[in-house]
Design goal:
With 577 residues, the protein is of the alpha/beta class. It has 17 helices and 23 strands. Keywords: ATP-binding, Nucleotide-binding.
Length: 577
């Protein structure tokens, strides 16, 4: 349970005269018995001739205590024994966030400093000018913190970048809470029902139960939701897409814990050829640097022109040869490209045999990972496409796929959704895309088809209503243009070496140090309006974050007679919130 907020307007000290005060920062000497902590919001006022009272508000960024009168380190023992007179002094550095009205004068030494009351806090953190604000968690003073939705929906900015150590920074949990807050805070008004979210899940089956109540949600957590103005309930509309089970002739979704609201996704060989998906088979940055990158485009164009549908299972006929599996298609290409009589028809020019062989080696290595999702042996009429139209939140489960196949799925699905938004001609309704491990899909070095799409989303998505919520362990390894286009930046627990990188220049030095010891559930959120990042603690999820937490939906709850059903097993850890 959060501690009660301090008394509104409580005086805590005076502006120091021994340290220079400026319109951007100043120091406060604390009165005996008074305490401030990092992230407290404080205010002071000054009467300026011709302008009247000017409010100077800021956030505490440093707190220090020392013996005043001690000359040597060993004096601490004499002072503690009462043999040497000295006074304990506590001081705090305040970084100014707002001056109202904008008369940039320093606060005067000796001026009283107060903890910000409700109205002053709203002004200090610019919450009073946020016409559309969404709660992002609780501050250290036990009161709600907000982010301006104008910097999320494309009005004045878009995109979110979340960084932190894997397993400790709770990046995915914060991303889902942010989505939940957007959907339930009322900022979307009439657009709420049509606004969509697309989540790519790589963490087992933990995200497949967002529409189930969390069995571990207690009354304390419910009270936090109430103070944030949010209902404590799961997501209302969720659809899961999973790849087919390997070797299953019926294309049953490859999930074990969830049985309802799950559909298989795959691409037929007809679609693979018509949509030129071959380039997403070569989606690594290394592929673009290889000499066969031009050959990929040539072969994809030939497949589009020459492939003809065969039967109703999605198989194709190319140059008189039928292919019913991805392995068949690869073998067909291998035969065509290794034959001197047909090679030039596919390459369009004289291509060194070494380049062709390198292309084929890479293509053959894709047979095993892609065979479950590139098919020509399942009924063509079956719905097998990842779509965001079925539910408010669409989850694409990737955890059962090899990394090569994960790249393929992310690239093809993102391209499809981006083109759909382009063709709609309007930015509304919005589409939020949650993608973890962004450094894998859009690395700083090299090029790839996925990176091109993500750059397009980062640079043009704002105008098209496609908002990226990207998460990564190391922002220093993500393409700079994607991070720089993110209006809202978030950091959880950071590795000390990573925290020292220039990509975290938006974190003041003291906050960088704090981020290396931050507890799970604590995030530092920066947004353009506020000159300092806000330290927030988001609440325990009201939705299940793993199968063991999932309560049965109200309409399907059935008593099994097992008194231990729903309780966590020995091997299931409680999430660190």
């Amino acid at each position: 349970m959060e501690e009660a907020a301090p008394a509104a307007g409580e005086a805590v000290g005076r502006v120091l005269g021994t340290q220079a005060a400026s319109p951007l920062s100043f120091w406060v000497g604390l009165e005996p018995g008074k305490v401030v902590q990092l992230d407290d919001v404080v205010v002071t006022r000054r009467d300026v001739p011709g302008y009247g009272p000017v409010l100077v508000a800021g956030v505490v960024t440093t707190v220090e205590a020392r013996h005043e009168g001690a000359a040597y380190d060993s004096d601490v023992f004499l002072i503690a024994d009462g043999a040497l007179p000295a006074a304990v002094v506590e001081v705090a550095e305040v970084r100014v966030t707002r001056v109202e009205p904008e008369v940039f004068v320093p606060p005067l030494p000796g001026a009283k400093v107060h903890l910000a009351g409700s109205d002053d806090r709203e002004q200090a953190l610019y919450f009073d000018v946020m016409d559309r604000r969404i709660p992002i968690g609780m501050g250290r003073d036990g009161r709600p913190m907000y982010v301006n939705f104008d910097f999320l929906d494309g009005t004045r900015g878009a995109h979110v970048s979340i960084s932190g150590v894997s397993g400790v920074a709770t990046k995915t949990s914060f991303a889902t809470f942010l989505l939940y807050s957007i959907f339930n805070s009322g900022v979307l008004d009439a657009e709420s029902a049509n606004t969509k979210a697309l989540i790519f899940s790589v963490k087992g089956e933990d995200l497949l139960f967002l529409d189930h109540d969390n069995l571990r949600l207690d009354e304390g957590a419910r009270a936090v939701y109430a103070r944030l103005g949010l209902p404590a309930r799961p997501f209302g509309s969720v659809h899961v897409f999973a790849p087919p089970r390997p070797g299953d002739a019926n294309g049953v979704p490859h999930v074990s814990a969830r049985t309802q609201g799950v559909s298989s996704f795959y691409w037929t060989l007809v679609e693979f050829c018509e949509e030129e998906l071959l380039r997403f088979v070569f989606a690594d940055a290394d592929d673009e640097r290889a000499g066969y990158s031009l050959l990929v485009g040539q072969v994809a164009a030939r497949l589009k022109a020459w492939a003809e549908p065969v039967g109703d299972g999605g198989a194709v006929m190319v140059q008189g040869t039928a292919a019913r599996t991805f392995a068949d298609l690869v073998e067909l290409l291998s035969d065509q490209l290794q034959d001197e009589g047909t090679r030039q028809q596919w390459t369009g020019a004289q291509t060194p045999l070494g380049t062709v062989n390198a292309f084929l080696r890479r293509l053959r290595s894709a047979v095993r990972p892609l065979s479950p999702i590139v098919r020509g042996d399942l009924p063509f009429y079956r719905n097998h496409t990842v779509s965001t139209s079925d539910a408010q939140v669409s989850i694409v489960d990737l955890h059962n796929l090899p990394e090569r196949a994960q790249r393929f799925v992310v690239g093809v699905v993102l391209r499809g959704e981006f083109h759909r938004k382009e063709s709609s001609g309007t930015a509304r309704p919005l589409l939020f895309v949650v993608l973890d491990e962004l450094n894998k899909y859009a690395p700083r070095e090299g090029d790839s088809p996925i990176k091109e799409i993500l750059l397009d989303v980062a640079e043009r998505g704002r105008s098209l209503g496609v908002i990226l919520i990207g998460a990564q362990q190391t922002a220093s390894e993500v393409e700079r243009r994607i991070v720089s286009n993110s209006a809202v930046r978030v950091a959880g627990r950071l590795d000390p070496a990573e925290a020292a990188r220039s990509e975290y220049g938006w974190l003041p030095p003291a906050v960088r140090e704090r981020a290396t010891i931050a507890k799970p559930g604590t995030m530092f959120v920066a947004q353009p309006e506020i000159p300092v990042p806000l330290a927030v603690a988001f609440p325990f999820p009201a939705w299940a974050t793993r199968p063991a937490e999932a309560a049965a939906p109200a309409a399907t709850k059935v008593s099994s007679g097992d008194p231990f059903q729903g309780l966590p097993g020995v091997e299931e850890d409680i999430p660190p919130f």
